[in-house]
Amino acid sequence: MRNFTIDRSDTRTGKAKRWLGLLTFCMMLLMGQQSVAQINYSESFPSNAGGWTKTGGYNSGDFLAHWWDQNYCTAAGAIRLNVYSSIPNGTLTSPAVGTSNGGPITLNYQYKILDYAGTTTSDATAANFGYFRVQYAASLDGPWTTVQTVGTQAPGGVGEAHTPSQSCTPKTVNFLPAAGPMYIRFEITRTNGDWVIYFDDIEMTQGTPPPMCTTPDDVTSLNLTSTSTTVTGTFTSNGDVSGFLVIRSTDIILSTLPTDGFVYGVGNEVGGGVVVANTTDTSFSDSTVSSNTTYYYHVFAYNNHPDNDCLAAYSIFSATQNTTTCPSTPIIVGASNVRTSDAVLNWTPGLYADNTGVTYTVNISTSSDFNILSDSDSGLVGTSYTLTGLIANTTYYWRVKTVGLSCDSDWAGGSFVAQSSYSPIAVTGFTADVIADGIGGALNSTTDPVDSTNPAANNAYVSNSFKLNP
């Protein structure tokens, strides 16, 4: 908040008092408006779905339980979802329930789960029904934050136990969301049986938000190291802070900064970037990058309180640094047209590689450790290299790497023997014998197909365009 100073030398005119009074009124009005922005929501579905929507489950157009069903908890209605082996998942999602002020929320609701038998749902479902999650989000597009899980079949067994009953069971969950719009939903998963779940009497109230935590000092000295698949970083913390938020972007500037009061998780989007780490360490590793790509990393410090006695506060500025990941390692195809004096070495770019601005370097040696090179070339833009001047019956080792804008890929390599891969042989019953990949003398080599009429359909032709690595 800005600090205002009044020139007391002019108080005789009363102008300063009038301005001070106007300023105080505006501040009180602003504070009053802020106090209104909180959630107070209630829905018991007396006559319609109240704006709730449904995905998954059986009969997607009918998810209200009314007098003909009579399995609501109170009043005259409930929302429901039927899941079974063919449709084991679904969601029941609220409309906007209000605007959060960042304060603690208490959510009360009732539920029950009944076996589906013919056209009735009269029997209580067994405890191993599956599980459901209570979640909230600032948008229908998510991301959704889970605040409660019911059902011990949840991954890791983290869910609260479900007690089978034909009566509704009241549940309560408390959580602290960020300020802003809010939606809630029930995410339902079946692991056994064919059953219907009912939700009713949903109430949400919100208290006063806690104060903001102290703004931490900025992070400094960010250093990055890249490979084709991973970026690692280290940085320096200044002062005592709760943790660090690392955001990766393809732009040097984030369009928005982290919002005070909101706790970000890995995968959340911030200002056109994505959170890749929320950590207490002064280092991180990001393995969700593409090769040969320039990224910008922004590291913010933050202060938070584990018991929510104060809301998360982020540093004013970030430590920002960029790096270009290395290109991906080439894939060896093999040596082709191998003869006693020459061969062609072949490779392809790495899978899903961005080859903008890259070249290749090739090494050839008669030693597998490449201590002494018999040939080498760099700056190659193609994916093959013709090797000449070979010594017959000698084993040659070769390797190739991609040279990127900031670093190089790992080496990929193979080997071959400098000898003729094919030699003509006599085949009884044929006047023209061809085993040389179209290379050789007129009498023992041809590129005509086997069934050619030139000179006759009596050619034997064996072709092997590439000799793969041993």
Description of the molecule:
This protein has 470 residues and is mainly beta. The protein is built from one helix and 31 strands. Strands 1, 3, 4, 7, 8, 11 and 13 form a seven-stranded antiparallel β-sheet that branches. Strands 2, 5, 6, 9, 10 and 12 form a six-stranded antiparallel β-sheet that branches. The relative contact order is 0.10. The N terminus and C terminus are likely disordered.
End-to-end distance, in Å? 73 Å
Outline the biggest β-sheet. Answer: 7 strands, antiparallel
Strand segment count: 31
What is the helix fraction of residues, given as a range?
under 10%
Computed CA radius of gyration, to the nearest angstrom: 35 Å
The secondary structure category is: mainly beta
Q: How much is the average pLDDT?
A: 80
Overall geometry: elongated
- The low-confidence parts are 1-36, 424-447, 461-470
Q: How big a fraction of the residues is strand?
A: 35-45%
| Count of alpha and pi helical runs | 1
Short description:
The chain has one helix and 31 strands. The chain has 470 residues and is mainly β.
Topology of this protein?
Blueprint: H1 15-36, E1 40-43, E2 53-56, E3 64-65, E4 78-83, E5 89-93, E6 98-100, E7 105-117, E8 120-124, E9 130-137, E10 145-150, E11 169-175, E12 180-190, E13 195-206, E14 220-226, E15 231-236, E16 243-249, E17 269-270, E18 273-279, E19 283-286, E20 294-303, E21 313-314, E22 319-324, E23 331-336, E24 343-348, E25 359-365, E26 375-380, E27 384-387, E28 395-403, E29 412-417, E30 432-435, E31 459-462
Parallel strand pairs: 30-31
Antiparallel strand pairs: 1-13, 2-5, 3-4, 4-13, 5-12, 6-12, 7-8, 7-11, 7-13, 9-10, 9-12, 14-15, 15-19, 16-18, 16-20, 17-18, 20-21, 20-22, 23-24, 24-27, 25-26, 25-28, 28-29
